[in-house]
Amino acid sequence: MEPIVGAGRVQQWLYPIFDGTDRACFGRDGTCRARFTDYRRAATSGQIGRGEGPLDSGFLSIRVGDVLWLYAGNEIGVVGRAIVRELTGRPEPWVTFTLDRAVSRVLALDPVPASLARRHLTGPTDRPLDLAAHPELPEGFHWWIDHLDERDQQRLAPLGVRSIRQALVRQPTLLDDRTTGALVRTLRTRDLALGVPAASTGASVVACDDRVVVVARVVPGSKAIVPRQVLASTGILAWYARSLALHDHGLRLEPSVWFAFKSPPPADLLHFLEERHDSVSWTDGERMEFGPRTKQWWPLTAVRLGGDRDGWAPASRTEGSDTTRGHAEVEPPAVKPLPRGSWATSGEAMETVGVATEDAGNGESAAADGKLRAIGP
């Protein structure tokens, strides 16, 4: 779907959704709440095709044919693309738009993380934002849609791992698990290619660039059984990470293991894993929280959406130390109560089986309190 070309220049906007206002999307079936998980299912299955909502700002500037990049809040990011079809001013400024189904399917499955979009913006993201002053953002969104999977495949091919979008072709619901979704968005912000390994490896996700390969496992279950599950898998995952790093691909990769929990892990288990130089995270709603050392090892990248980086390198975990690459030794803070809220990270044409997780689909959390309505044909 191409924007309508009229007399004026087509503008592009960041348009927030799921923020507790009356924004909505329409389609063929039923009624559902405006949670990201609901929107993703509806967008990937083609059940929604148009939407509407208020204009908190921009009413005098937005025109029919303008492009709206649908923004699902600071915990998720950009999840769709739409074209403005109608504008009304009474009883309040209102916009009606048509979803670009193909593009929105890609972004619903693999959103542009909010942190990558926000690094170019200085104002609030709770109202429509004109992107005319930030042309690199729409360009980056298009690159994300059209070229990111190609780069993922190129990086993952030497490891013999299929990309996450290739995997999602057969089973798109496997990213419905909120911990897996948060983990994927977190690794995306580190400019890592994402892949899905064979289930026999015990890993949920493989991520890599030209310097590091990460083997990540989503850990389900209660606190009573989590330590046994994790301890039983540490050696297997470490061996798999090492085998990928030493694969005959001509690269010098640093192997890394990452455990993503559905809730904060026991403090002694967190201590143990980070002392082994394993990364640890857990979900709080749609957010990903981090162990204190993990937060230091994996700072946010300065990734450009066009695929280039501003000199960022993942932190190096040398044997027996907590030294970040290019910096003096850093002593991690002592773990007291587990940190909460400490650090948030945050189409049809892109057929992308999801991540092999256990207990998938449990504990979904609303991104906000708006409504996502589906009506009529």
Detailed description of the structure:
The chain is of the alpha+beta class and about 375 residues long. It has a domain at about 10-140 and about 365-375. About 25% of the residues lie in helices and about 25% in strands. β15 (about 280-285) and β16 (about 285-290) form a beta hairpin. α1 (about 35-45) crosses α2 (about 100-110). The longest helix is centred in the middle third of the chain and has 20 residues, at about 225-245. The radius of gyration is 21 Å and the shape is elongated. The chain starts with 11 loop residues before the first strand and ends with a strand. Residues about 310-375 have low confidence and may be disordered.
Q: What labels would you give this structure?
A:
23% strand, disordered C terminus, alpha+beta, 377 residues, 7-stranded mixed sheet, 8-stranded mixed sheet
SSE layout and pairing:
Layout: E1 12-16, E2 24-27, E3 31-33, H1 36-44, E4 48-54, E5 67-71, E6 77-88, E7 94-99, H2 101-109, E8 112-113, H3 114-118, E9 129-130, H4 136-146, H5 148-156, E10 162-163, H6 164-167, H7 178-188, E11 193-196, E12 205-208, E13 212-219, H8 226-245, E14 254-261, H9 267-275, E15 279-284, E16 287-290, H10 292-297, E17 371-373
Parallel strand pairs: 1-5, 13-14, 14-15
Antiparallel strand pairs: 1-9, 2-4, 3-17, 4-7, 5-6, 6-7, 6-8, 10-11, 11-12, 12-13, 15-16
Helix pairs in contact: 1-2
